[in-house]
Structure formats: structure tokens, C-alpha cells
Amino acid sequence: MANSKSGDSVVDRIVRLISAFPQDVGALQLSDLAARAGLPLTTTHRLVGQLAGHGLLETEPGGMVRPGLRLWELVNRASPALALRQAAMPFMEDIQHVLNQNVNLAVLDGWEVLFVERLSRRGSATNRAQVAGRMPIHISSAGLALMAHREKALQASYLAQFSDPDGRLTSGDVRTLLADAAHQGFAQLKGVVDPDTWGIAVPVLNRRQRAVASLGVVVPLQEMRLQALVPALQTAARGIARRLADS
């Protein structure tokens, strides 16, 4: 039930508050949190106090607020992402050991890619993917691998609304990339996010050949070995799919 002047329910405001924490920022000043959530300071203060009482947020001296351990605990209980990470981790470790590069695991959420795991090593290529971070589909090989193996109706809806404010790619470019990924069984992006890197990703397909996740690597352009990378990723993706089916 809505019980604020804006019409937002208490749940709406709590979600806005928790979602206001930006990626890679551990804590925010109460006033900054209120501004990012679009809530009055008094409302934010009250909700933060209530959430802190349940361990979902934590308050620190000086008015700093951070997500609480209780929030992390609840999110990770019986989460589909947790089951996916557990199934994928042995295969991701093998890929990283062989390639010595960043390896990422992602799922599709709307028109964005959500990264649920990433393994990295010192000295590996730059990789903008972060655990619990998001990227638009069209600038991520993971996103293209996922969308290329989803229903045609979903692809059509995605392309119909597509826009790229940065002008990197057109809808025609994305349509071609999706078609190539569907035909080849993997997606690749060369220098779209970082000019010196190449992203390669393959879908993790369930028994109905629907992409439930993607497994990808980011490598330096000069070390690109497509004929070696793709079979290794595809073998690992099949292993992950088998473990998910057995769980």
C-alpha cells in the first residue's frame, strides 16, 4: 500500500534505498544516500535506522551507511546465482589456469548483463566486468552470447528498443553480431570497451538449448588465439550445463 506523498510504498522506498549504493563504493554519507535514492533526508534516516536494526544496513560514526552482513546472508541463501557459481567455479578455475586471463560468468537481466562471478590474476588484460556489476548487452561479449541464444521474439524486442548513447554500435551492427554469435556458437567483441582487448564468450545452454548463462574471457589483442580459446570455453560451458542439470 502506498503511504507517501509520492505514492511510493514502504517496500518501494526500501528497494530504492538499498539499490542506491553504487558499485565499488562500500559506504555513503546518509545525505548522499538520500540524494541517490531520491528520498527526503528524514525518511532516509528513519528507514536506515529500521534496516540497521535488522542488520540489513550498518551505520558508522560520522553518518556513514553501508550494506549489512545480514543482507549478504539473505541474498546468498538458495540463490540461483549461487548454484550457478558453484557449478561453474571448477571450470572457471581450469580456464583461468590454462589462459592466465580474466574469466567471467554472467546472466541476462532485462537489457543488461549481470556478472555473477569473475576470476582475475595480476597482469591479466583489463576487464570492466565486476561481480554484481552490470553492462549493456551490446558492449559485452557475454551479453551478445546470451541474447543470441534466446527466443526470437525477445531478440526482436531488444533490437526494437536498442539505442547506444555513446555511438559505439548501431542496431544493424548488433543484429549482425547476434546473427554471427548464433551461427558460430560464440560471441566476440574487439576493442569496443577497451581498444586493446578482445572479449570472447560462449553460452551455457540448458537441455532446451536456451542460454542460462555465459562463460567468457577478456584477452589482449596481441594474444588472441580464437582457435584455442573457443573450444576450451565451449567444453567448460558444457561441463557447467551438466552440473546444473544434475543439481
Fold blueprint:
Layout: H1 10-19, E1 28-29, H2 30-37, H3 41-53, E2 57-60, E3 64-67, H4 69-75, H5 80-99, E4 102-109, E5 112-119, E6 134-136, H6 141-147, H7 152-161, H8 171-184, E7 187-190, E8 197-205, E9 211-220, H9 226-246
Antiparallel strand pairs: 1-3, 2-3, 4-5, 4-9, 5-6, 7-8, 8-9
Task: Please give a quick description of this structure.
This protein has helices at residues 10-19, 30-37, 41-53, 69-75, 80-99, 141-147, 152-161, 171-184, 226-246; strands at 28-29, 57-60, 64-67, 102-109, 112-119, 134-136, 187-190, 197-205, 211-220.
Task: Describe the protein's architecture and organization.
With 247 residues, this protein is an alpha+beta fold. The chain has two domains: 10-74, Arc Repressor Mutant, subunit A; 80-246, GAF domain (Beta-Lactamase, 2-Layer Sandwich). It has helices spanning 10-19, 30-37, 41-53, 69-75, 80-99, 141-147, 152-161, 171-184, 226-246; strands spanning 28-29, 57-60, 64-67, 102-109, 112-119, 134-136, 187-190, 197-205, 211-220. The strands form two sheets. The protein has a six-stranded antiparallel beta sheet with strand order 6-5-4-9-8-7, sandwiched between helices. β4 (102-109) and β5 (112-119) form a beta hairpin. α2 crosses α3 (41-53). The longest helix has 21 residues, at 226-246. The two termini are 39 Å apart. The mean pLDDT is 86.
